[in-house]
Amino acid sequence: MTTKRNVDALLRLLAWMSPAFPIGAFSYSGGLESAVNDRRISSAADLHLWISIVLQRGTLWNDAVLLAEAWRSYEDARALAELGELAQALAGSAERHRETVLLGDAFVEAASAWPHDVFERLPKGATYPVSVGAIAAAHGVDLEDALAAHLHSGVSQFVSAGIRLGIAGQKDGVAILAHLETEIAEIANRASSSTLDDLGSATILADTASMRHEVQGTRLFRS
User: Fold this and answer.
1) Which helix (H) or strand (E) holds 53?
2) 214 is a domain residue
3) pLDDT tens across 145-186, in order?
4) Domain-embedded: residue 14
5) Owning domain of residue 92
6) pTM here?
7) Per-residue pLDDT tens for 42-80?
8) Does 35 reside within a domain?
9) Number of domains in the chain
10) CB-CB contact of 169 with 27 (8 Å)
11) Cα distances (angstroms) measured from residue 31 to each of 54, 158, 169
12) CATH code at 87?
């Protein structure tokens, strides 16, 4: 016996997590540019390790927990507002705060092409993972699918930034994505049953890189 898949939900998820979705994600590096400038990352192997750490116990993990909580709370405007405030408070630097808020607002605006009353419950500045989680739930997207797609999108953005910064080639980037598939699936599965008690990170170098980027002279990226 086979289960009929919600193809409409899948197509929406593919559109929302596409690099072509107009939210401006390409302009952010999450502190990676600063780490490259400081010679902490200088090769594709370094980039792979950096992304893996951020995925396992950094901002990508926290975003996954926030997305899952928003997915479960999509019908509760008050809960979404409080979650958005928490997500903003967890931003470790001014640039990280601006990134998650602006991406969230841009995502809400672009995703409104698919009308739903969830947009009336989402507050301004809900942040990117909270917006994605709530809107995905409202449109019937499976939680683990939403998490996997969002994490893959975040990893892809780091890879893209690394390629543009000249520390990896396109072939290297594809290899990194292939090698991280299992980790992405594991994190998505773990985050799907997470609670806010699971929030927390241990990526001091990545966090300080984001802070150092604020005072960096020449920059390609906004974070």
Assistant:
1) helix 44-57
2) no
3) 999 999 999 999 999 999 999 999 999 999 999 999 999 999
4) no
5) 43-206
6) 0.95
7) 999 999 999 999 999 999 999 999 999 999 999 999 999
8) no
9) 1
10) no
11) 11, 10, 19
12) 1.10.4190.10
